[in-house]
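Morning F.,

Quick status update on the modeling queue. The single chain you submitted on Monday has been processed. Sequence for confirmation:
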Amino acid sequence: MSGTIRSGVSSLFQTATQVVNTAAEIAKTVSTQVTSAAQNAASTAQSVFEAASNAAPLVDLSGGTPAPVQDPVVRDGSPATALGWANERLGNTGYDEQCLDFVKGAYAIHQTAARSPEINFANGTNNAIGAFNGLEANGKILPPDSSTPLRAGDIVFFGADEKNDMDGHICIATGNTAADGTPEVITSGYPGAPGVHLSSIGQLSEASGPYIGYTTPELAFAEGTWPGSSEASATGGATQGATNPAGNAPQAWNNTCGANALMSMEAAVDPERATQLAAMSPQERAAYEGAVLRSDPENLFKLGTRPDGTTKGWGTYMMKLQVSERFGGEATEITPHNRSQAVDALTTQLAEGKPVAIGLAGHWMSATAMRDGESGRELLIHDSWTGTSAWVPEADLRQQGSGWVRTHFPGAPFEGAIQSLVAPGEPVLESGSAYREAEAGLLEGVRAEMR
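Structure tokens below.
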């Protein structure tokens, strides 16, 4: 057979060769893609496994009580959840020169437009002065009055001025007094002062324009769109006179409900501690809360970002350790078998003048006092998540399915079954507490993490 291939056959052979080569390249590409996909799947599976391994367990195995793993802030239109949301964004520059969006975000007005159409639509101008004009036209603006302190959650307005490009300015009062003697506010950033930060009426009057008035949720929000006066009256006025001795402040981190509850317990038995804590600005209070969380040197807790962090917090073991070290005597730990046992133990400790840490599933609250109300005995309970307090009727706590947490602490995403109680041996602070002494040294580290 000759080694010469005829031209027609040669052409056919070349075509066949090209087909074979192309098929080989396709097979190689498919193989590479399959291998890459398999590797990606394996990598993803490993990441999921590591995330699951590192995530906070629903139960703190060292202490036996569910650790605080909490859901996002429910911005229900209340000052507590609005300020909680705003505090989480301290330093955030995403709202610079977007003050109206900042306030709408804090009160979830952009999600619930019916809550306040005047603020949501701002007379079609999409600026602060437009919102002010709409509210004023409907009689919902209160004039500036230095003799009337602003409450936490009041919505504050500054007039149209060249300093703010004639847009006006809007921010939220914290309920505190700033160093310059004027009401403290939390505000979005602007030229010269970037990022969400704490300021004051005095500072903003110089930086942004004249203070022209304010509104309140009661005035500005439509009834039924937020947990306002109608709900409060439905609970028998249980929130009247309900004040946290450490100051009503929501937990600053997703895993500091235990520290927040402990601070209210300390303030309840020691006026000096109460004065110290209640006088703090929200930012300093957040730093202090982080220091309390970490005050046990053997347990290096990480600060969990709120609202969506899953960092492990205190279980019953750590709460008992903290209460034993900070108060006189050995702490009492109670694990009730039912609702009746829980309330019996709670009222017994309060009757002895002892504040109590209340452990729910994944959350800590505290109770610091008891009184006789119109319909029976009431307990003063403080919720760390919302930063609010309420006189809760004992009957509500005893009644199965009463939903006492949702009723008295709107926005708190927890069930009311009490799983554990921790009370001090003696209702006095231990003067030589190593944990309290450690707080001062831990503050700077927490502040650095917050920056």
